[in-house]
């Protein structure tokens, strides 16, 4: 993983790492977040991100995450397109998150 490459990156003069979205999502690009509370298992899960953060700090590097908080994926519980939780804005007009989405 990335942590193993940190000494090499440091030798190259890298002072910061920028990561695309890491949160749980069904796509490869992860811009359609399904759960903001957990790192996707494809990236090693929550513990992997915590280890990477610790390792970048130990190397004197900064870790920057591309957090996409202005929208969510359609499988996120707030929207729930597939109607798994029965409370998402897609199917429930009384959802507290209904106003967060545009329905045209």
Give keywords.
104 residues, alpha+beta, Transcription Regulator spoIIAA, 2 domains, two-stranded parallel sheet, two-stranded antiparallel ribbon, 2 helices, 4 strands, 23% helix, 14% strand
Structural class computed from helices and strand pairing:
alpha+beta
Percent in helix: 10-25%
Largest sheet: 2 strands, parallel
Average per-residue pLDDT, rounded, comes to 90
**What integer value in Å does the Rg equal?**
17 Å
Q: How many strand segments?
A: 4
Which topology of the largest domain does CATH recognise?
Answer: Transcription Regulator spoIIAA
CATH first level of the largest domain: which class? Alpha Beta
Overall CATH architecture of the largest domain: 2-Layer Sandwich
Q: Structurally, how many domains make up the residues?
A: 2
Give the ordered list of helices and strands. HEEEHE
Number of helices: 2
| Lateral strand order in the biggest sheet | 1-4
Low-confidence stretches: none
Q: Which shape, going by the Cα principal axes?
A: elongated
Strand content: 5-15%
CA(first)-CA(last) distance = 43 Å
